[in-house]
Structures are given as structure tokens and as C-alpha cells.
């Protein structure tokens, strides 16, 4: 994995804090306000930093005129984002559970940590930047909650967008001469297997947790054991999670944490993350501050190898005549594609991930790939169809043309939604 340097880390983490929490880089600096949307304030420093981040990602050096234009566009996007959030939070039919927030939070933090060569490098850089893991996690948690609310509102509105046969004919007649050639593409289905810890690995983590609990019962220091044994990034802070309220963490953890008297240490608590030992440090109103030691049941290389062997056995079954769709229903963990026989849809060949491109390279329609690993797990891919580069046809490309027409109509729907929200929300762009 490519090593990340301190400057890059600072940019990533500062972006996380400024962009995601909506605050300035330092509360000690007097900042200018660029816009007010309802109860939300967008600071000039946020817009400036968004522009810097964009330029860095695009590896561009912008002229003053280009920079000013970019900042204007970014501010408009940020205002629209806040408008959607205002609407979503007011909508009582939209709900987001603590489990959904924690899952989204974990994915975001895993993505950040994956940019480092090791967990210790991540923790060292955090300390260099003067941040604790719990501070970063707290800021990300609020943004993940907000993002889920916005996503649910947008998904609901977009589900209403349909394209009639007449609308499709009109769209094709208007744009067929300007549509680019259809690129080379492939239609795929998959069986997805998650790399999970074996029962032996889970049992080992449980035994480790009970062993640590025994040391605590014998008088060992909680903070020291957390630093030495915990698998959670909070280990660097002695397991200190800071203050949290109901709904911030998973229920199994919270139920124990809130029931503990100050100073007490829990028994071993199992959650989706592994086995915890929790110590209550303090309580303030409806919030509690705890330390914890986490013994994760992390899948080992041996566990992954076993999953790959099982995936290969499914491939052999399919090649031997077993129905791929039935194998999907029985074994795939991808709930979104199960009902469609594992169908993932069409992909432009040049846009495939290197892993997928390598797996299906040279495969014909109907062929099945060897097990292929991605960030989501282990895949067994089936090539359902292939297409060479060609012009568009309303008969052959009806569904894709529908998607294009729907995308155009969606832009109109979103613009209308934003105009409606703006008409009933205080907006001041300065």
C-alpha cells in the first residue's frame, strides 16, 4: 500500500473536520461567513479549503479567475447540500438508526485508515496532528448521520422519477445524433462471500477478552491494558471513548455502558465488532464517558483462504451445471442483487477495477471467473453478456436510454426540489 505522508494526512483529516463537521480549522481564528442556510453557517475557510482540496485532487494550479469561479460553484453546492439536510431533518417520515450510522461511520474510518501502511502509522500520525481518534470519530459520526438523512430524502424523491414511452421517443429523437458511440461493455453477475472470522478465531478473541478481564479483576490498570491489548484505535488513548449519548453507539454496548456505576468495570460484552470490556469514567446528564478494551474477532489469512476455497467450489458447481442464480440465492451476502440472480448490470470495460478486469479478461459470455477479492469480500463473477463499441439503438438500448433520460429528468426534479426548499428556508449568500 502506498505510504501516506504527514502533509497528505493533514489535508485529509482537516478536510474531514472542516468539511464534515462544518467548523473552521481553528476556533481561535475569526472567520468570515460565506452563507447562512437556516440554522447552518458556511464559513469562508470551508469554501477556501474545498477549493484547495479540489485543486490538489485534480493536480491543477488555478489562476485567480479560475479559483474565484470554482469557489462560487463550490459555495452553491454547499448551500444546496445544507438545503437538502434542512428538508431531510424536518421530514418525520425519514428515520436513521444508530446501527446505520455506526456502519457508515466504520466504512468512512476504514477508508481513511486504509491509506496507511499500518495501524500504528495511523495512530502516530494522529498524535502528530494533535488529534485523538475519538475526536475524529465524533465529528465523522454527526456527518454520517446527516449524510444518511440526505441520502434517504434524495432516494425517495428520485424513486418518483419515471420515463414514459413517449418521453423516451422524444429524448432519443432529440439526442441520437449527439450521443457518443457505445463503449465496449460487459454485463456481470456475482456471488459475494464476506471474509468473516471462523468460529475458532471468534473463540480465540473471546478467550483473550476473558483473560484481560481476569487481569483487571486481579488489580491491573485498565488504561495500561487498553494500550497494550485493545484492537480499537482508542487504545492509543487508553481506551477512552469520551462522552457519548444514547444512539451514538451500538445498543449492546450502550445498554451496558449506561447501566454501569461510575468506576465500575463490566463483564465481557459481545457486539458485532468483537468482545468489549467497558469501564464507566463519568456521567453528565444523558451522556456517559467510558473506556473500553476491544478484542476483535478479525479474520485471519487462514480464514480468508478457507473462504476463497469455498468460492472456488461454488465456481466448480456452476461450471458443472448448477444454476448460478440458485447459488446466488443460497450463498451470496449481497442482499441488493440476490433477487436478480446476482446481476450487477453493465460496466464499461475500461471502468472496471483492476481486480475485476483481470478476473474476466478473456472470458466469454457464460463463463465464470475464479474467486476475486475486493474491499467487499470474495466474488465469483459470471459474464452475462458482452458488447462491442457501436451506435445507439432505441430497440437494443432501451433501458440505457431510459437511464439517460431519467438522469436528465432527475436534474429537473432536483432543481425543483431545491427551489421549493429554498423558498421556505432562510438563505443568505454573502
Can you walk me through this structure?
This protein has 430 residues and is of the alpha+beta class. The chain has three domains: 6-158, Porin chaperone SurA, peptide-binding domain (Triger factor/SurA peptide-binding fold), CATH 1.10.4030; 183-195 and 300-387, Chitinase A, domain 3 (Roll), CATH 3.10.50; 199-295, Chitinase A, domain 3. The protein has 15 helices and eleven strands. The protein has helices at residues 6-21, 44-58, 64-90, 98-113, 119-128, 133-158, 165-175, 199-217, 222-229, 251-259, 301-319, 324-331, 335-338, 354-360, 398-423; strands at 33-37, 40-43, 185-193, 240-245, 269-271, 274-284, 287-295, 343-348, 372-374, 377-387, 427-429. Strands 8-3-10-9 form a four-stranded antiparallel beta sheet, with helices on both faces. Strands 4-7-6-5 form a four-stranded antiparallel beta sheet. The longest helix is centred in the first third of the chain and has 27 residues, at 64-90.
Offer a concise description of the structure.
Helices cover 51% and strands 16% of the residues. The chain has 15 helices and eleven strands.
Q: Which features does this protein show?
A:
430 residues, alpha+beta, Triger factor/SurA peptide-binding fold, Chitinase A, domain 3, 3 domains, 4-stranded antiparallel beta sheet, 15 helices, 51% helix, globular, disordered N terminus
Amino acid at each position: 500500500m502506498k505510504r501516506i505522508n504527514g502533509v497528505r494526512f493533514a489535508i485529509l483529516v482537516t478536510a474531514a473536520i472542516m468539511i464534515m463537521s462544518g467548523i473552521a480549522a481553528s476556533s481561535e481564528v475569526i472567520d468570515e461567513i460565506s452563507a447562512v442556510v437556516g440554522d447552518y453557517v458556511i464559513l469562508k475557510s470551508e469554501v477556501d479549503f474545498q477549493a484547495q482540496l479540489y485543486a490538489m485532487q485534480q493536480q491543477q494550479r488555478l489562476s485567480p479567475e479560475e479559483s474565484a469561479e470554482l469557489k462560487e460553484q463550490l459555495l452553491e453546492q454547499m448551500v444546496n447540500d445544507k438545503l437538502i439536510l434542512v428538508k431531510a431533518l424536518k421530514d418525520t417520515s425519514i428515520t436513521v438508526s444508530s446501527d446505520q450510522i455506526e456502519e457508515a461511520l466504520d466504512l468512512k474510518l476504514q477508508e481513511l485508515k486504509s491509506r496507511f501502511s499500518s495501524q500504528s502509522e495511523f495512530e502516530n500520525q494522529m498524535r502528530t496532528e494533535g488529534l485523538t481518534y475519538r475526536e475524529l470519530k465524533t465529528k465523522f459520526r454527526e456527518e454520517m448521520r446527516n449524510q444518511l438523512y440526505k441520502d434517504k430524502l434524495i432516494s425517495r424523491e428520485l424513486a418518483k422519477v419515471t420515463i414514459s414511452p413517449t418521453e423516451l421517443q422524444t429524448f432519443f429523437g432529440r439526442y441520437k445524433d449527439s450521443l457518443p458511440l457505445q463503449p465496449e461493455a460487459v454485463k456481470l453477475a456475482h456471488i459475494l462471500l464476506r471474509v468473516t472470522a471462523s468460529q475458532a478465531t471468534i473463540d480465540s478473541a473471546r478467550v483473550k477478552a476473558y483473560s484481560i478481564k481476569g487481569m483487571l479483576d486481579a488489580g491491573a490498570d485498565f488504561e495500561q491494558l487498553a494500550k497494550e491489548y485493545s484492537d480499537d484505535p482508542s487504545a492509543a488513548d487508553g481506551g477512552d471513548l469520551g462522552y457519548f449519548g444514547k444512539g451514538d453507539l451500538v445498543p449492546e454496548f450502550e445498554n451496558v455502558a449506561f447501566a454501569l456505576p461510575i468506576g465500575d468495570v463490566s463483564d465481557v460484552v459481545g457486539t458485532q465488532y468483537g468482545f468489549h470490556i467497558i469501564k464507566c469514567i463519568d456521567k453528565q446528564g444523558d451522556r456517559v464517558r467510558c473506556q473500553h478494551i476491544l478484542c476483535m474477532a478479525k479474520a485471519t489469512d487462514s480464514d480468508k483462504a478457507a473462504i476463497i476455497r469455498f468460492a472456488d467450489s461454488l465456481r466448480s458447481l456452476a461450471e458443472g451445471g448448477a444454476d448460478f442464480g440458485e447459488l446466488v440465492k443460497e450463498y451470496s451476502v449481497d442482499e441488493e442483487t440476490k433477487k436478480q440472480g446476482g446481476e450487477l448490470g453493465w460496466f464499461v470495460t475500461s471502468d472496471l477495477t483492476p481486480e475485476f478486469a483481470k478476473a474476466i479478461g478473456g472470458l466469454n459470455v457464460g463463463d465464470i471467473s475464479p474467486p476475486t477479492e475486493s474491499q467487499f469480500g470474495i466474488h465469483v463473477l459470471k459474464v452475462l453478456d458482452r458488447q462491442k463499441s457501436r451506435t445507439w439503438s432505441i430497440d437494443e438500448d432501451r433501458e440505457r436510454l431510459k437511464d439517460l433520460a431519467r438522469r436528465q429528468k432527475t436534474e429537473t426534479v432536483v432543481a425543483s426540489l431545491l427551489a421549493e426548499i429554498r423558498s421556505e428556508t432562510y438563505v443568505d449568500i454573502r
